Every structure is written in C-alpha cells, then in structure tokens.
Amino acid sequence: MALTLDTFRSRFLLQQPGGSSQHLSGRHAAVLVPVVARPEPGLLLTQRSRALRKHAGQVAFPGGMQDATDASLIATALREAQEEIGLDPQQVDVLGLLPAVTSSTGFQVTPVLGIIPSGLRLTLNPDEVSSAFEMPLAEALQLSRYSVLEISRAGVRHPVWLSRYQDYLVWGMTAGIIRSLSAQIAF
C-alpha cells in the first residue's frame, strides 16, 4: 500500500506520542521535520555546512537553539527553518510535536512535524547548510532501514541509529527522530 499524505496525516493525528507536553529542563532547541505535500510525500533533509564548528557535514533537520524572543518551540523550529533554508513559516502546516530528545551537546530538542507545499524554492544559507534533499517518506519510515550502533560514553551505553539514502549517511539524532516517527505511526 502506498503512503499518501492523507494516510500519513491521519496516522499521526490518531496516534499522538505520549509526553509531548512534558516540561523540559535545561537548554532547549527545536527542529522542523518537514513533510513535502506530494501524492507520494517526501521528507526534506539538509546537509549541514562543513565549515560549522559542531555537527559539520551531518544530515539534519532545519533547527537550532530556542531564543528568548521565540514564543514557543514551534516558533523556534519555524524561525530556524526560515534562517537555514528560506522556508516561510506561513507555508508550514504544523501537525504537532514529537517527544523531545536529548542531543549529544545536552540540548532538549523538540521535533516539530509540519507539512510544506511541493515545489517550494528554497534559499539555503551557505553558512549553515550545504545542500537540501528530499527522501521519499515511505522509504524514510521503513524501520528495517535503520541499524543500531552501540557506543559507550562515560561508561553508559547509547544506541546510535544509522541509515543511508543515496550518498547521504543519516545517523544520530536525525535518524532517531525519523525512526521514532515510524514506530509511532506503525507504517
């Protein structure tokens, strides 16, 4: 069965994750998980600039640290997407939040799931993003495409999820967010 945008939207809205309204402590950040509205929807991802100090060259969702002027974590994700890829916040249909995850740098990162129109002309900020690409959503949500690598940090074992799409290695928090979304909607 093909995954349509309507099917995806229905499954997400009917199977909301638990804990998305939890109080977060510490430093906050948010990422936009942009689903491209097509008959067969896509997932928009970016590759971070290789000139960045942290996470250089990694595949990621648009996002970053919450500013004091951001009204919410949704506002953070939308602002960061506008700064990184030129996405107008008015063009995002926000569906909801996924459970926050803790980044390797200690941020509580809240993924914001949103639908964006197809055919948008993106304006990449070269200081932050080297490229943007779209992965078929049905392919991204296949649990079988993710492998786990167990790493040990300070004596504690952590699973790190890995997946490959074309010439891109999707791993770490980004792969974990996609895998978690897949498990939630049981595609």
Description:
This protein has four helices and eleven strands, in the order αββββαββββαβββα. The protein has helices spanning 5-14, 73-85, 137-140, 172-185; strands spanning 27-37, 42-48, 59-60, 63-65, 93-97, 101-102, 107-117, 129-136, 147-153, 156-165, 168-171. The strands form two sheets. Strands 1, 2, 3, 4, 5, 6, 7 and 8 form an eight-stranded mixed beta sheet that branches. The relative contact order is 0.22.
Please tell me the CATH architecture of the domain at 5-16 and 26-141 by its name.
Alpha-Beta Complex
Mean pLDDT: 88
Percent helix range = 10-25%
Number of strands: 11
CATH class call of the domain at 5-16 and 26-141: Alpha Beta
Catalogue the unreliable spans: none
String of helices and strands:
HEEEEHEEEEHEEEH
- Helical stretch tally: 4
Inertia-based shape: globular
Rg over CA atoms: 16 Å
Beginning-to-end CA distance, first to last residue: 10 Å
Q: Mind describing the biggest β-sheet?
A: 8 strands, mixed
The CATH homologous superfamily of the domain at 5-16 and 26-141 corresponds to: Nucleoside Triphosphate Pyrophosphohydrolase
Strand content: 35-45%
Which structural class do you get from the secondary structure elements?
A: alpha+beta
* CATH topology heading of the domain at 5-16 and 26-141: Nucleoside Triphosphate Pyrophosphohydrolase
